[in-house]
Prior knowledge:
By secondary structure, the chain is mainly alpha-helical. The chain has 3 domains: 1-132, Serine Threonine Protein Phosphatase 5, Tetratricopeptide repeat; 140-209, Tetratricopeptide repeat domain (Serine Threonine Protein Phosphatase 5, Tetratricopeptide repeat, Alpha Horseshoe); 305-401, Tetratricopeptide repeat domain (Serine Threonine Protein Phosphatase 5, Tetratricopeptide repeat, Alpha Horseshoe). Helices cover 80% and strands 0% of the residues. The protein has helices at 2-32, 36-49, 54-79, 82-95, 100-112, 116-129, 134-156, 160-173, 178-190, 194-207, 212-224, 228-241, 246-258, 262-275, 280-292, 296-309, 314-326, 330-343, 348-359, 366-376, 383-394. The longest helix is centred in the first third of the chain and has 31 residues, at 2-32. The chain is rod-shaped and about 125 Å long.
Amino acid sequence: MKNFIIILLTFSAMYAQTSAVALYEESQKALSNGNIELAGEKIRAAIEADKSNDSFRKEFDRLNNLRNKMINANRSVKDGRFDDAIQGFSAVLESVPNSAEALYGTGKAHEGKKEFMTAVDFYKKSLQIDSNYIKSKKSISNVAKKLYNSANQDYKNGNLELALTKYKQVLSINSRLYQAYFQMGVLQKKMGNLSLSIENYLKALDIKKTFDKGWYNLGLAYKENGDIENAKKSFEETVRLNGKYYKAHKSLGEIFIDVEEFDNAISSFQRAIDIKPNYSSAYHALGITYAKIGNYEKSAESLSKAVELSPKEFLSWFHLAEAYNKLNDCDSAKEAAQESIDLKKNFGGGWFELGIAEYCSGNGNKNASINHFERARNDRDWRKMAEYEIDRVRNPEKYEQ
């Protein structure tokens, strides 16, 4: 019986040692995979299985030291001591290069220092180790948003090149963020790079085809680039997606003017006004369209509404004066022309229409009319027309039929 007990104890000790070695190996495997917490748990279990093994205890102390370094580094991030955090995580990574947590923590420290691209690099490294590391995925998304907002602020501040760089960085992080492509389109248009602007708008729309604002801005870029057909298609798509997009209705109306589809232009401007009754620029465009088809009464009516809503718009007053002159309402034309001149004294068009109103088909003050035309000819764009009218006032017999 005594011998049996001795044999049993011997086998128990051997089993415990075997189990402890297995636990130690599991600890090392966990450590190799970057899991310091699990490695610590396994080495603690190994010590319990073989309390006499000093090498196990030394390994436990080493792992505990790494764990404390990790805790202190994480605390440094929370306290805003980012350089200390980076140093702490670096010490952990020297021993445990596959620690997703330490890589993530290093990323957070760099993010705190606004070193966004370096932060993303570390977040991505953590995901290479653990593709399901949720915190890194969320942080990458947050960095993209921070960079995007920072780029928008740079754009507002006039730092266009810096904003462009940041938008590109955003897209290198998240190539599906259509808003970044859109903003690059806005920025490139402002910089005069219309082809690049159009290219970026198209990339945004390739990601989100229902982006009505993207279609509208694409239409504006096409129009400025002289591509009327694609501009028209873009504005039509905008109002198809959003029937209440009043600016797109107005822009589509302006395209219809360019292609001389005046009835369609009137319908588009009227639709814009129906949506936004105080839309002065739509009334302005409607007045110009009516003038093009010779309906000066409707033109004057629309332009009168335009100046009522936007009394500081000198061109609306100018076109209103033109409509009144066509209606031979000389007094109203004088008032409108004078308003245009008061708002912009060097604009030849205002002086020209004032001259026409003053002459009033030969029934007005010829000398005053000539003086106004002389002022109009100071504007190079109006010189030839003003000189023609001066000659017509001075030599009316030349123009009699």
